[in-house]
Design a protein that fits this description.
heterodimer, A: alpha+beta, 6-stranded antiparallel sheet, 16 helices, rod-shaped, B: alpha/beta, 5 helices, 5 strands
Amino acid sequence: MNWSIERKLPLFVTVLLLAVVLALLIIGYGEVRRASRQLANARLQRASQQLAESFQRSLAQYRTQTLAVARDPGVVAFLISRGQHAEAQARAALAHIALDTVSNIAAELWTTDGQLLLRSGRLRSTAAVFPATDSAAVSPLMQFDTILHYQVTATVRDGAQVLGTARHVRRINLNAQARAMLTGLAGGDALLLLGNAAGAPWTDFASVVSAPPATVLQSATPARYERGETKRASAAAVPGSPWMVVVEVPSRLVLAPARAYLRRMMPIAALVVLLGALGGWVGSRRVTAPLREITTAAEAIAAGELDRRVQVTSEDELGRLGRSFNTMAAQVTRALQTTEMRLRSVSETAHDAIIAADADGIIQFWNPGAARMFGYSADEILGQPLTVLMPARFHDAHRTGIRRYVATREAHVVGKTVELAGRRKDGSEFPIELSLGAAPVNGVLSFTGVIRDITERIRSAAALEATNAELESFSYSVSHDLRAPLRAIHGFSRILLEDHNAKLDAEAQRLLGVIDQNTRRMGQLIDDLLAFSRLGRQEITAGRVDMKELTTVVADDIKRAEGERNGKLEIRIGALPPARGDRALLRQVVSNLLQNAVKFTRGRDNARIEVGSRLEGKQTVYYVKDNGAGFDLRYADKLFGVFQRLHRAEDFEGTGVGLAIVKRIVQRHGGRVWAEGKVDEGATFYFTLPFEES
Amino acid sequence: MQPHGVEILLVEDNPNDAELTIRALKQRNLANQVFVCRDGAEAIDFFAHGAGPVPKVVLLDLKLPKVDGLEVLRHLKGDPRTKSIPIVVLTSSREEPDIERAYELGANSYIVKPVDFEAFARAVADVGLYWLLLNHPPQ
């Protein structure tokens, strides 16, 4: 299911409203119910109280009447005479109790021993009730056939002597009219019941009914009970009688207002929920419509429609979103155009050929550099396979390579730079250097190649090789051809000296000695020069070189070779970290520097040479320090030049190549050399080498 | 010049070097049967006729006119009849590729001729003595 905001929001609003409305309904219903129950209780209690009071008033009247009869002198006299005298007066007294109403059914005079002396009316009383006091007493209700009756009894006395009783029998009229009248008093919907507190009979004033349960009769507050239906009833005793009244209302009538409330509120609640749902839907539409527009626009931009913008004009957050979106789209477009322009400018300016092809090797992009290099215009070449650009012997390898890369991403050429041959439109071949990249463009694999015509480079490489070869042959010639005449000069001057010694005077012999010395020196110069030139071409085999060990060995060799000399010679070797380089060449560096130091301290009584080092970043600075002849700092730059010497040959021998060799070796290791010194105070030679991690 | 009883064949284009070499050999009494070829072609010709005398040692310079020393070396060491003749390369070249190539081609010794005459004489005499007197070629 598509749970879009457009659906979720109204649903959420509806559910929320429904919950609130239901809660309100339930609470309201409860409140109304409670209120109406309280109201009903109060009404029932009031009604029962009033009814009881009304019965009490009526009964009080009947009692007064009966008492009046009992105190009538005629009646007293009648009873004293036990019916013998004053019957007329007694009958007249009884007549005070009007027998003209339906309620008044009999009036009687009885003796204490239970003899009826006089009687008016039809119904005879049942049992005598002797009032406990001087007042008249009311009997419980009694049932005779369908008639409910009761009697009011008063004692007839003669002074303190009880003569008998006057009885007033009354009936309770049971008919619809009486009932309607009483019901009307209680409010119309209530039912009035009258009966004995002790039990049956009870009446609803229309007929005799069963007595309400004790729970109702004994409860001080209104209680519920079942009689045909659930009722709420309030009981009240009728004072001065053994009677009780009960006012009852069907519970449904009590709860009617609550029901009515529900009935009234339900449609309102439904309307509120409906309106809420509608509002939610409209609101979500208002929110999602601009969002949908922005989404559509974003998709359009993503699909390449770069000038697409959204029309969201409101001032709220959505409006801001829309404006931000437009700004962003504009910037993206600008950035894209900038990038595109830059790329185009790069590809158009590039001297190299820049070519793009799809996964099938079909050319999709062709820059002017490519056009110049291969001779095809873009119109001619776009859509053609890459094989057009290569000699036939590469075709199979090319197709296999592309297929393999597309299938397995196994790269042999992709991501690398290789040298191959290209084929121009005119069919001619030329050497190329190809850098090939592969990347998905819009999800489709695309190859991009940058091709450089390396004809010139190969030509100059060949030229350089030729030059090198020439140089080598030159060195060879120097080595061979310069040495031969020297050897002849030396050889023949020696022969002259040996074979014709007798004919030569001392001066001639001295001159031959000079020739001898110079030819040897020349030979040394040639050898050093060759060694120096060889250094430029020699391969460096880099490895870890233990400088401490190397220096110790070299120092021992030199000391041994130096042998006897005037004064002490001390070579102190400090901590020397390992270096990365060619052991044989580094040995030469150390050897040359030490020999130098030994040579220039030869005049000292206490020659001291110190070899040490310090770390400077990734490099180690090694130094060889002596307390020898030193040099003038002004000529420091000449120290490392070939055949440059700061001392006269008769002071210190040498060809002036040693330090030049040191410099060349150190430079070929990526280091540098320099020197510090002072005339007669010694010199320090420094050189740096890459530090080798141990 | 008929090469009879040749013991040492010196292939050397430089007459001065040749003279110095012969003098050095002479001082050790080794120069009796020295035959000198002035270029590579001559050296190859020396062995061309088969029946000629077989020297006990060839002292060969590398830098020679016409056919250079390495070519002579290859020729002699490639021929079954001459390949057992000891060949000592005597040259001015200190270039290592030359030394390597000479040994690859079967040179028996390689001597860089020093400029110093005494050293040169000593070297030539030692090598001559060794190959003539001390070394016993396969029978």
